[in-house]
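A quick aside before the break. I want you to see a complete sequence-to-structure record at least once, exactly as it would be stored in a machine-readable document. Don't worry about memorizing anything.
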Amino acid sequence: MQQRIYVPVTRRTLMSLRAGAGLTGTPLLAFAVTEGLRRDNPGADEEQLEYLAFAQAVAAAPGEQRVVAAADVDADIVAIVSEADVPARSSAVRVADSVPLRLLASLHVEESPRAHGSEPGELLWYDATEIDTVVDLLA
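That is the input. The structure line, written in tokens, reads:
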């Protein structure tokens, strides 16, 4: 069974991914629809829950121009993170294995760099095959 995850990434991470290294971490922090997210948002449908998980990934994205990668991974490699470890992020998960480029569905890039501490700007959608374009945008 597949699970959609959202991974905050940097330009450096994207360059490694493009070179074949995959998204890696020990383990990799990502965001997904979890039971905690469902519990915190009673009545939300799957699409709304996916958006909330995505929004938590955007909020966790580093740098001046936020980037989030969406991937579909085997659910067996995804584990829930304790809310005590990642407060106020009920969709936080740990991914136990690297995520190769072939599992990426899309990349979401903040339209323009943000001022320090400001809310995220509009995010643009790119297909995973457009990784070169995304890396160039962040140069």
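Two observations worth writing down. The chain has a mean pLDDT of 89. DSSP finds four helices and seven strands in the chain. We'll return to this after the break.
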